[in-house]
Amino acid sequence: MLLIHPPVAKPCEPPAGIARLAGVMGDYPVTVIDANLDIILRSMHVEMNADDTWTRRAKKNLDAHLDYLKKNKQWNVDRYIRAVMDINRLLERSVQSPGIRVNLGDYQDKNLSPVKSMDLLQAAETPEKSPFYPFFKDAFIPHDDGLIGISLNFLSQALPAFAITGYLKREYPGVKIIMGGGLITSWMKGPGWRNPFKGLVDEMVAGPGEGYLRGLLNMGISSTHVRPSYDHFSANDYLSPGFILPYSASSGCWWQRCRFCPERAEGNPYKPISPDAVLDDLSLLIAKHQPSMVHILDNAISPALLKRIIERPLNTPWYGFVRITDHFKDAEFCMGLKRSGCAMLKIGIESGDQGVLDALDKGMNLETASIALKNLKNAGISTYLYFLFGTPPEGMEEAQHTMEFVKHHHEYIGFMNLAIFNMPVSSPDAVKYATGEFYEGDLSLYSSFKHPKGWDRGKVRAFLDNEFRKDPGIREIVKRNPPFFTSNHAAFF
């Protein structure tokens, strides 16, 4: 079987979903290709028009930049930004196709949309028009069984993935192509899903694909999870200081109540691996791969797992997403996380207005969040906070409360992500507020909506640009955010 991770996604760690599938395969012959990493690395070295000072400088310093990103366990902000921006410059300039822009985390085509099935089918029909065609042409050779799995998680991967699919179907018409991953799951769980890709994609799999793969290969249904395998990935090629080991201790979310959450809207169940099984896995994987960082991928690491990590420390730096609970009011709990190896926690605060949080069923108290941020700072754990503006219960007054919360806690915040709310098409609130398509396309995951307080996207953007980001304390936080790699690299600062 051939498993493919298509471009474009951040090339900083191996794809965890394919690693889980590779773990299922056992002794079954499998080839894993991280086409995203391969194409990005090769693109930087192609001949291009170096007709400006920036591009010439970037080409001259490419090897030094790659060495800096890969060999320094802690980065200087200015040196890091110069390296990443120069590398991205070469990637952008490597693409000569009119209307197509590529960077280290995105792919945009002004002529084709990743949320229009007809455009994806057109990409499959004309793969030679893909800017990546010279790289993937002849790069994929299926096994004798003709099974090919393509993992599609982000919109930035969609058009290249369908170009690859079209190429494979044309050159190897007998192959069976299976698509899965987070984006496929969201499409298939959307309202009114009708598969537009029949005849091109043989099977589409929603949710974790391990069970499907076991059935496909007649392995039987197992009640136990399988440890992911990273044996097929090159540990030294990713743009990170050492090997980052991604690991999912669960699928879904243990809270499952936030009104804005796509996991809830799509009805994805929470399926955790037992804490001791997680730590058994990580112990063996850490011993084998000696990672510089463990990335726990859960939507929110459960309190039970956090407690067990404290009792059974990883002894390797790690980070992941958590929900603020009363546990973080205990300074010793936070110190225990630090001793376990915790370098950074990502936290969805979303709003600094308690009324908004309550209306969204966030289940978080701002007083508790304040204590938690101070305890984590004192313990030496960095925080990467997420704020969501423009939700239905928020207006200008509530957004200003969020600004005051950030200003009051700026010394305890390491990094910050600011997002404008998108209404998921599967959300129960979509029926109440939705007014039409957010993006024009039958595969759009969001719908536009009429804000009940008139707090539309234009007003939110103006507030963020003209008021929020201009506060000196907030501006310093925003400036620290690693370009392109964002939270994937923040733990190394």
List keywords for this structure.
alpha/beta; about 15% strand; 18 strands; single chain; about 500 residues
Chain-wise SSE layout:
Layout: E1 2-5, H1 16-25, E2 31-34, H2 35-43, H3 53-60, H4 62-71, H5 77-94, E3 100-103, E4 106-109, H6 117-125, H7 133-136, E5 147-151, H8 155-171, E6 176-180, H9 182-188, E7 203-204, H10 210-216, E8 244-247, E9 250-251, H11 262-266, E10 271-272, H12 275-289, E11 293-296, H13 303-311, E12 318-322, H14 331-340, E13 342-350, H15 354-359, H16 366-379, E14 382-389, H17 396-408, E15 415-420, E16 423-424, H18 428-433, E17 434-437, E18 446-449, H19 457-468, H20 472-479, H21 487-490
Parallel strand pairs: 1-2, 1-5, 5-6, 6-7, 8-11, 11-12, 12-13, 13-14, 14-15
Antiparallel strand pairs: 3-4, 9-10, 16-18, 17-18
Helix pairs in contact: 3-5, 4-5, 6-8, 12-13, 13-14, 14-16
Task: Please explain how this structure is put together.
The protein has about 500 residues and is α/β, with parallel strands linked by helices. It is built from 21 helices and 18 strands. Helix 13 links the parallel strand 11 and strand 12. Helix 4 packs across helix 5. The protein is globular, with a radius of gyration of 23 Å.
